[in-house]
Each structure stands twice: as C-alpha cells, then as structure tokens.
User: Fold this.
Amino acid sequence: MRLILFLLPVFLLAKENWFITKLEYGKMLYHNPRGISCAKCHGENAQGKVIARYYITKNNQKILKTIKAPDITNIDFDTFQKKLFHKKLSIMPKYNYLTPQEISAIYLYIQSLRNKK
Assistant:
C-alpha cells in the first residue's frame, strides 16, 4: 500500500511533464511507426519522393513508369487519418494499429514540415 501511495504522484507528474514534446514524438513516429517508415516513401520533409521506376513494353517501345508518393504536408487531418486506415488495395500500407494520440503527433510533425518548403 505504501508503495502505491509513493508511486501515484510519480505517475501523475509524469503525465504532465513528458520527457519529449508531442512534436518530437511525432517526428520519432514518422520515422519509425512500428512498421514501414513514412519517410521511406514520403521523404524526410513529407513532400513525396519516387518509390520506384520501371519499364513496360507497349507496341515494341519501352515506356518508363514512375511510382511516386505524394506530398502530405498540405492535407487536412481527416484525409490524413482516412489514408492511414484505407480499405482498398493500395501501395500505401495500413497503419490501423496507431493510437489517436500517435496519429495526432505524426500529423503535428508533418504540419511543422510545411513551413520548411
């Protein structure tokens, strides 16, 4: 019982004084969200980048195709969240295991990158 009474203020204080900010947490999750990193496809500044280039042959001609992840710095929160939980077959992985707090932190970080363009 004494241990619980001793630790309770520690836990309550910890909730108010996180060791990293929400922005720092969002940056960490952007680069390592317990899955494929957002930066792998959307780039360090979330402005999109080329994922792959390949050729197809059509009418005996080689045609270069490019798969590029979009810039995500200008999307609204609802669109961002829907893209994380998409239902159709897509190259974009699902991130349905992220908590609302994690999604919010990642979005905050992405929005901070908008100013770095």
Observations:
- DSSP finds five helices and two strands in the chain.
